[in-house]
Each structure stands twice: as structure tokens, then as C-alpha cells.
Amino acid sequence: MTFAEPSQNPVADAVGAAVAWYLDAYPVTATIMGSDDPAHTMSHGDLSADGYERRADEAAAHLAALDALADADCGFADGVDRDLVRAQLRKAGIGAERQNWRRDPAEYIGTALYSVYLPFEQRTRSEARLVEEALAKLKLVPDTLAFCRANLDPGIAPRLLVDRALGQARTGRSFFTRSLPALVRDEELRAQLADAAEPAAAAFDELAVFLADFAERCEGDWRLGEAYYSRLLQDVEMLGYDTAELHRRGRAAWDGLDAEMRELAARIPGGSADWRATMAMLCEDVPPSEEAMLAEYVAETERARQFTREADLVTFAPGEECRVQPGPEFLRPILSVASYSRPPALTPSRVGVFNVPFTPEGSSPEAVRGRLATNSRVSMPTIAVHEAYPGHHWHLSWVAEQGRTVRNMFTTPYFIEGWGLYVETVMREQGYFADPRHELGHLDARIFRAARIVVDTALHTGDMSIEEAETFMASKASLSPETAKGEVNRYCAWPTQAASYLTGCLEIEAIRAEYLASGKGTLKQFHDTIAGSGGLPLGLARRVALR
Q1: CA distance 394 to 39
Q2: Which residues make beta-bridge pairs with 147?
Q3: Domain endpoint, select from 217, 252, 284
Q4: Which residues 6+ apart lie within 8 Å of 269 measured at CB?
Q5: CB 195 within 8 A of CB 527
Q6: Residue 6: what pLDDT?
Q7: Whether 285 and 414 share a structural domain
Q8: In this predicted structure, what is the pLDDT of residue 7?
Q9: Do residues 305 and 297 make contact, with C-beta atoms less than 8 angstroms apart?
Q10: Closest CA to 356 of 325, 395, 380
Q11: pLDDT of the residue at 415
């Protein structure tokens, strides 16, 4: 059954109608998910003010239709699907209330860049088809960026978000004229793409000039505010507590990890109870270059995969593959840590990409050294586990194998990132971090996530300034000042995401304890069940695991 086909199940029909609408309303998202419908692959959607307002009304109507369906109207799995889509639509409603499309240029810049780049990264269609689609989307870039200039409102747009977007806009020319053609193997097709790139590159040049001037007039506040933050936690993530309680939990987690790390660091040769000084010493052992860092991540990813298989912790999806490569150029100014690009949800692909965090072109030697220190050899094992096996790549390739497309499409960072941190702990329990230095690196990653909870909640409720947050992250976690600055900038632009890692991890650990105590299955069965259910809000994940 396609999403739009009617059935005898009113809940499945309403879910299908909402998902079909979503794909048509957000064609770039549909393209990134792997849709090959030309209506998606050759469109940026309606980015006018009327278009944004119409989509908000339509999303509200679909939410109302789903809200009206009682639990008695559906089976267990359909009820989970319904509540997942409801959470997604509630999140869209909060974004519409805040008018993010008037506040953040990244809304438009991301549309122009990702819609062209990710299909080449995924390569689920022929190169000739990908180039045909890219040529069509290159023609859309000037109008897309014109909507950006028309829609932004200096009264509510925060300078921080505009400056952040400006860094990305300045990569546009290089991306379209150099990086994008380089993705094409066929010489004739590559030449076609290069010849068509100039109008898009010029539009990005024009936007960069506009944003540099616009930033001087911005008066908006980047803070989300406690009320919106709590709504996202409770209405979207389905957590049973508010922002203040989450902040308290982050503080408590940091204190507990601090004590554990002091004891462990004292047992490391050359170390001491000052775990930050010990980590600083260990972080001096870095790859000699970004290219060497990439090679070591390739090796560490394969080691994590083999250990996961030999320990029989999970079931692997047939055909899964995790490619390890430098992060795309346009992400480097705004993302200072490793990341992962999932298999496209609407395709049979099980191939994902572990993006190694290279610095932007032209970065100073000090900036490169800081990036290498953040990816030092003491931290590489836990980062590879988190991003690849049995972290994000294993999880999202396994979800894709389960056949419920709605679950594969709509995910929440509180499960996705919670899972990535949870499996770090599992691998520690299984002996993967046999070297105490690597064990300390794992705990450092965990206390870093506790510090993120503290900082993210405090930033967006106005209890901490940006400068205080940068100092907190540099002193309470093993981050260089340069990396701490990049991290905090990201938190300001992406509220609640930074808190998702440890919050989700602790919730999954609690669900596991109940699952195993009740005798529902083995550790492997728990992993296959809860991770295979999708990247659900934690309340739904608990429902699926414990029934």
C-alpha cells in the first residue's frame, strides 16, 4: 500500500495521508530521504511567505485528524505510527509558531546545498539522472535565496543565526563551482554541471553580501525560552519532565561522572585524580594530519564492527556499509565534531556515511591542531562506536530493514543520539575499551554530554551567557577553546538537540533494566527490538519495548 491508498483502517489511512502530504509539502526532505519522484527531486517547494503559512495550516489539519482517532480504532503498531506522526506534526507546529523561516537564513541555505549534495552522496540513482536533477535545482538557487532575503525579518532574526549562516553562504561559490562537479565521474556530465554552476554561485555571493549588511540590523533573540523548551521535551519527545528538571539531571550526571573519572584517571600511567589534566595529556597523542585522522577512523570503524559482530550484540542488516570520509565542505564552518548521514529512508540502500570533521579550507594551523585534539587517539574508539557500530550506522541501517517506512522517515534526536551514547556504555560493559585510556576517553564523551545538558538548558532559559557557556564547556569537558566556541554556537542555533544524547541514553538504560528484569528477552533481543522500532520519542520506545 502506498501512503495515499485508502484501506479499511482509518488510522492507517490518516497516517498515510499525513505522510503523503509531508513528502509533497517538503520536497527537499523527500529527496534527501531518497524519493525519485520528479515532483520532489526537481523542486525546492514553495518558499514564499504564503507557502510557509499554508503548510502550517495543513500540518495543523492533519494533526487534528490524527488527534481525533481513539486508541480503540487501531492495532498496536498502527497506534505507534499515529503517535509518531503526531509528535512530528507538533514539532512542525512549534516551528511555525516561532516563524523560523523569518528568523534563520539556514532554512534556505540548507535547501540549496543539501538538495544537490546528498543525492550524490547517496547515489541511489544513475549519475546521468543525478546530474539532470542537479541542473534543475541549480536553476532554482537564485529564487530560493531571493525568498531568503525577502522573508527574513530583522526584528526577530538573531544576529548569531545570521552570522552562522553567513559562514555557510561564503562556501557556496566553492561548493557549486568546484566541489559539486568533482562529485561527478563522467567527464562530459561533469563539464555540464560546471558550466551551469555560475548563476547559483553568484546568488550565494549576493546572499553573503546581503547577510553581512543584514546582520548589523538584527534585533532578534536566539534563545528558545523555557516554555518552548519544555513543550519540545514533553509534547514532542514525550518525556515526563520539564526544562528545569532536565537541567537538574544534567548537573547530577556530571557530578557522578566527575567522581568516577577522578578515580579512573589516577590509575592511568602518568595520570592523576585531575581527569581534565590527564585527558589533556592524552589528547596530545593526535594523528599528524587530517588525512591521517581519516585513515585511523577507517581502521577504528572496522574494529568496532568486528567486535560488535563477535560479541553478538545485534543483528546486522544485509548489505549494510558505513563509508568513512571527510565531512562536506559546506558543513565544516558550522560543525566541529563527527557526524553521520543515514541511508535514504525511501530506498533499499543500507549505505551510510561517517563524516570525519575536517576544518574549513584555509583554517589556521592552530584551528587544525584544535580539531585534531578533539579527535585524538584516546577518543577515536568511542567516536567510531557512536557514529558507526553499533551506533548510528548500525541502528539506522537496521531500522531501514524493518519495513515500516513511517518509522524510518520520522525520528527524534532523543532516541537517535541517545542510542549512540547508550551503545558506548554497552561496548564498555563488553570490554571494548580494554585500555584504561580509552575507557577514560569514553567517560569523557559521556561527561561532555552531561555538560551539554547543563549548558543547553541554561543558554535557552537565559541563565547562562554565551561566554559563560564556552568557559563551562572548555573547563568541564575536554574541549579546546576553539572547539568549545563552535559547540556553543551550535547549541544556540539548535535548541534541545545538545541535551538529547545523555537524556536519551539514560532513558534507554532504564527501559533496558525493566526489559531484562521482566524476562522479556536477551540483551541482543532488546537491542534488535527497541532499535528496530525506529528512532521513536522515548515514551513510544518504552511502549514498544515493554508492550
Answers
A1: 31
A2: none
A3: 217
A4: none
A5: no
A6: 62
A7: yes
A8: 64
A9: no
A10: 325
A11: 97
DSSP summary character for residue 69: S
| Total domain count, the chain | 2
Q: Are 313 and 430 in contact (CB under 8 A)?
A: yes
Residues 142 and 286 in one domain: no
Kindly state the cell numbers that stand for 306. 568486528
* Same domain flag for 67 and 134: yes
In angstroms, the CA 368 to CA 371 distance is: 5
Q: What pLDDT does residue 329 have?
A: 80
Helix (H) or strand (E) holding 349: none
Specify the pLDDT at position 403. 85
288 in the same domain as 161: no
The DSSP-derived string for 369-428 is HHHHHHT-TTTHHHHHHHHTSSSHHHHHHHHHHT--HHHHH---HHHHHHHHHHHHHHHH
Range(s) of the domain holding residue 176: 10-217
Summarised one tens digit per residue, pLDDT across range 428-478 is 999 999 999 999 999 999 999 999 999 999 999 999 999 999 999 999 988
Buried b (16+ CB within 10 A) or exposed e, 483-516: bbbbbbbbbbbebbbbbbbbbbbbbbeebbeebe
Contact 377, 287 (CB under 8 A): yes
**One domain, residues 443 and 309:** yes
Among the listed residues 531, 285, 536, the one whose alpha carbon sits nearest the alpha carbon of residue 406:
536
- State pLDDT tens for residues 180-225: 999 999 999 999 999 999 999 999 999 999 999 999 999 999 999 9
Q: What are the angstrom distances between the C-alpha of 53 and each of 63, 92, 169, 431, 436?
A: 16, 12, 25, 53, 54
As a whole number of angstroms, the longest Cα–Cα distance in the chain is: 68
Angle at alpha carbon of residue 111, lines to 106 and 114, rounded to 5°: 105
Q: For residue 362, what are the CA distances in angstroms to 206, 224, 292, 359?
A: 22, 33, 18, 8
Residue 370 contacts residue 480 (beta carbons within 8 Å): yes
Which residues in the chain show pLDDT less than 50? 1
Strand-pairing partners, residue 48, are: none
Q: How far apart are the first and last CA of the chain?
A: 26
